[in-house]
Amino acid sequence: MPYRAPVDDYQFIFDHVVDLDQVSQTDRFSEATPDLTNAILTEAARMCEDVLHPLQRVGDQNPAYLENGVVRTPPGFADGYKAIATGGWVSISAAPAHGGMGLPMALTTAVNDMISSACLSIQLNPLMTQGQIEALEHHASDAIKDVYLPKLVSGEWCGTMNLTEAQAGSDVGALRTKADPNGDGTYAITGQKIYISWGDNDFTENVCHLVLARLPDGPAGTKGISLFLVPKYIPDDTGQPGQANSLSVVSLEHKMGLHGSPTCVMQYDGATGWLIGKEHDGMRAMFTMMNNARLGVGGQGIGVAEGAYQHALAYALDRIQGRTPIDGGTGAIVDHADVRRMLMTMKADAFAARAIALACAVAIDMETATGTAEWAARAAFLTPIAKAFGTDTGIAVADMGVQVHGGMGYIEETGAAQYLRDVRVSAIYEGTNGIQAMDLVARKLSDGGEAAHALIDEIEAQAEAARSTLPDLAEPVWQASETLREGLDWMLARSDLNQRFAGAVPFLRAFARVLGAHYHLAAALAEGGTGPRSALARFYLARLLPEHEGLLAHATAGTDGLYALSPEDLSA
Amino acid sequence: MPYRAPVDDYQFIFDHVVDLDQVSQTDRFSEATPDLTNAILTEAARMCEDVLHPLQRVGDQNPAYLENGVVRTPPGFADGYKAIATGGWVSISAAPAHGGMGLPMALTTAVNDMISSACLSIQLNPLMTQGQIEALEHHASDAIKDVYLPKLVSGEWCGTMNLTEAQAGSDVGALRTKADPNGDGTYAITGQKIYISWGDNDFTENVCHLVLARLPDGPAGTKGISLFLVPKYIPDDTGQPGQANSLSVVSLEHKMGLHGSPTCVMQYDGATGWLIGKEHDGMRAMFTMMNNARLGVGGQGIGVAEGAYQHALAYALDRIQGRTPIDGGTGAIVDHADVRRMLMTMKADAFAARAIALACAVAIDMETATGTAEWAARAAFLTPIAKAFGTDTGIAVADMGVQVHGGMGYIEETGAAQYLRDVRVSAIYEGTNGIQAMDLVARKLSDGGEAAHALIDEIEAQAEAARSTLPDLAEPVWQASETLREGLDWMLARSDLNQRFAGAVPFLRAFARVLGAHYHLAAALAEGGTGPRSALARFYLARLLPEHEGLLAHATAGTDGLYALSPEDLSA
């Protein structure tokens, strides 16, 4: 089943929905002209369609495995990775000083999205490296940068994130991995890390681990955590991979999906590491990496949504079943109202999620280019929404993709189930979607709701302006934003954070629903209210947007009655 | 991870929510005393907990396979099946004349639910047999009944349903399997059937296939379909399995889940079959079987919801992470608001789905006992809701179960993912949930909405009566039922069925949401408004019930704009 990268969709969203133009008008990103943007999207699309997508089923059917301590990757993955690396797709947004293209995160986000559609398992590898590049650019010494960044940017080496330990998952502060000073400026890292995506491979010269660990004098909790760079092979004086470090892959996990991507248990036995950033300040550096990765994981969900949608649509256009209920129908199941409803839902939600992610990326780019607090706040506010709604959409769309296939959807050979199995983890890793929602209602509202209100103001302003031209579309968006604002104010009035946490997940989803409506309206406005994007917007506003009211009722129920059942009652 | 069958929950629902007492007061079911009911539930619970649940992981890890044309089942499945058969659990509701217990379908439903929690793969086998028993009881000749029913009832033989062909899925009328008269009263069946659950096994003496096929003079479409009984081994004069029939298992499917249950491609090469019911009247007999199976599949979803809930709760009570946000908390993640929200949602929805299924079963029993059209209409109306909401709940709860586990949820060894992979098919087979919803808004409203309005009347009557004692619970149920009635009236006013079909799925879900509220209110009333069931009801009413408004907006959008995107636009 072929995949076609939706270049026109990215381009339309850039031009008419998230205003990439404002980014390319900054000095920092002046090279990101529309022509260059389009050339990059087109070139990446070709690789995704021709080289990467054929690897998707291969990876599922030939899982990565451990052989004598080395991870063996699925057939063809080495070539797929090479195409990504040599195309420069690891480092679209990396600094030119180390070989990157220095282009906007919006472009990286679009390309990551399409690589995710094509083959999610392999995409996770460069995604982790991108986060590492950004962390090192911000926090590493020049000496470290000079050795590592050119190799990471070129894709000759790749990077991983090592946070989780068996007893320290969402609670990173509970980690026990130790870092003992060696006396020569390096540290001896000892401990075990789990869930390390792409912890090893057989196609890059080196694998560079960013490891959270505690110095001997590190206080308990997150305040005592430092970040270390721990390469598989220690670079020699010429910067080439030298002596093997004291680390190993203990085992690979058997996962529900993403079989092509090795998820490693990593053992560090006094491995040599280099401090990145300041002592005890590892969480700050890690958050640089994680915020990047969170948007990236949101993009994974969106990419899978696109892939699953195209896959289901192809089936629905081909599968003949029953009589068509419409005049001039195709005769295939795409004519049936419920199938059409599912496909329209998939397409409308994929658009909404993509627009949110690209709006987040544009905010990051504007923050980078202008350094203003407003853009930083916007980027910070949108990141958990982009992550959670992007991945929830990926899961929901892949699930509908299975359903569109009927019985065939449950048969693995069809490939529909793989999308669902693969994408399911995206709601869990890089901070579960529950953690994202808690971040949204706590840290991201710690400005008193300024960033949130500013966003709702923009939504209302566009809706107000659209009232004269597209009243049928403007009115529901305006109404929904008012309801959302009430929900926001409810949250802000709760000083007890647990009251907010109780409804954080439905609140985040309600916010995403309304944001999605805002971007659909923008698309319709760009079309003058007629055309396929306007039709999709009308579908979304009439059928999907109304969900926000029930979500906000849920969101604002607080902890009232939440703990009314004791653990014994829950078990009864 | 142990499973504990929720015997008290079934008993409570029987006693206080769906009024099983009215069933046991009929002549037909006078034996179904509370004592007997409780004894049966307790006995079945023991088997599920001790014998069947240990097979769940085994079946996933040791899939059924085909060896020299015979299906080999996972280790222990033969013993598990034997426990089901010798316990009489295949035939709780089968007629005593052939060895059945003759007890209410409500009991069968409860026991199927718990077998599904314990091991879904194995449960699918007796579920298919139950449908076959019912079809034969209603439509077979006495000669057929005498040979087959005692063997099916005892579980020595088992039964399957053969509807689907490659080109005939939801459109059963497109089937091509032929039935040619042999001249001796039997027929030669020729064709290929797909997706045949438990099409063969290595632990029953015989496998009896009910096969839909077309006689030489059968008109096109469903009106030309007849039903045939086609045994793997043709019974000899003594009724024992004799000569092998001309049928074979061609292959097994590789599925997303349910690995322990062989899903067969069956080939019939002039296999000897016996007509069941009248010529060209196969669909009617098949619907007897399918209605039974639809409620049963709904029960599969509920059973998996229960299993996944218990599994996730055990993890949440055990897993220490972060600081507890509540006074006197356990310190485990069950204390965290979002985890608690998920667990409460899982429990509240499992209750709602279970009550709906048991109310449907009680309606079937009252139909059986009284023969009144009202009970028949109630049973018919509730069946698609029980099927679709039961399975949607199974999937949603299993999905939340994965999420509660965090990273562990994605690792297969944990078992959380298996619940999700196993139950996913339940929204597809026995008529996709889209087909269920179309059945609800078309055939089940073809009485002009009489059955639907009668049900809403009951909901309102209970809410009215509860106003004086539990106003905080009664009011939202009453309001919701009014909104639902408006949605129902919208549906009834649409003579173009495709207008109804466009919103059938959200309409069914909205109806289930309000029904769930009704049964939660009944539970709270039985407790006098205080106690854990009342607390669960309050949770449901405040947080989950509000979903119905958005669903009804979706449901009543009709085909407006649904087809605004052409196939080319959809592909753009």
UniProtKB/TrEMBL annotation, chains A, B:
Alphabetized, the UniProt keywords read: FAD, Flavoprotein, Oxidoreductase
Would you say which domain of life the source belongs to?
Bacteria
Q: Which SUPFAM superfamilies match?
A: Acyl-CoA dehydrogenase C-terminal domain-like, Acyl-CoA dehydrogenase NM domain-like
Q: Identify the residues that the record assigns to the Acyl-CoA dehydrogenase/oxidase N-terminal domain, covering every copy.
A: 79-156
Q: What GO MF terms are annotated?
A: flavin adenine dinucleotide binding; oxidoreductase activity, acting on the CH-CH group of donors
A Pfam family this chain is assigned to: Acyl-CoA_dh_N
Q: InterPro entries from the xrefs? A: Acyl-CoA_dh-like_C_dom (IPR025878), Acyl-CoA_Oxase/DH_mid-dom (IPR006091), Acyl-CoA_Oxase/DH_mid-dom_sf (IPR046373), AcylCo_DH-like_C (IPR036250), AcylCo_DH/oxidase_C (IPR009075), AcylCoA_DH/ox_N (IPR013786), AcylCoA_DH/ox_N_sf (IPR037069), AcylCoA_DH/oxidase_NM_dom_sf (IPR009100)
Residue ranges annotated for the Acetyl-CoA dehydrogenase-like C-terminal domain, each copy included: 455-565
Q: Does the keyword Transferase apply?
A: no
Q: Which reactions is this enzyme annotated as catalysing?
A: 3-(methylsulfanyl)propanoyl-CoA + oxidized [electron-transfer flavoprotein] + H(+) = 3-(methylsulfanyl)acryloyl-CoA + reduced [electron-transfer flavoprotein]
- Looking at the record, the residues that make up the Acyl-CoA dehydrogenase/oxidase C-terminal domain are 281-443
This protein's cofactor list reads: FAD
Q: Which residues form the Acyl-CoA oxidase/dehydrogenase middle domain?
A: 161-269
Q: What is its EC number?
A: 1.3.99.41
* Alphabetical list of PANTHER family matching this protein: ACYL-COA DEHYDROGENASE, BROAD-SPECIFICITY LINEAR ACYL-COA DEHYDROGENASE FADE5
What family is reported?
Answer: Belongs to the acyl-CoA dehydrogenase family.
Protein's job: Involved in the assimilation of dimethylsulphoniopropionate (DMSP), an important compound in the fixation of carbon in marine phytoplankton, by mediating the conversion of 3-(methylthio)propanoyl-CoA (MMPA-CoA) to 3-(methylthio)acryloyl-CoA (MTA-CoA).
What protein name does the entry list? 3-methylmercaptopropionyl-CoA dehydrogenase
* Native species: Roseovarius gahaiensis
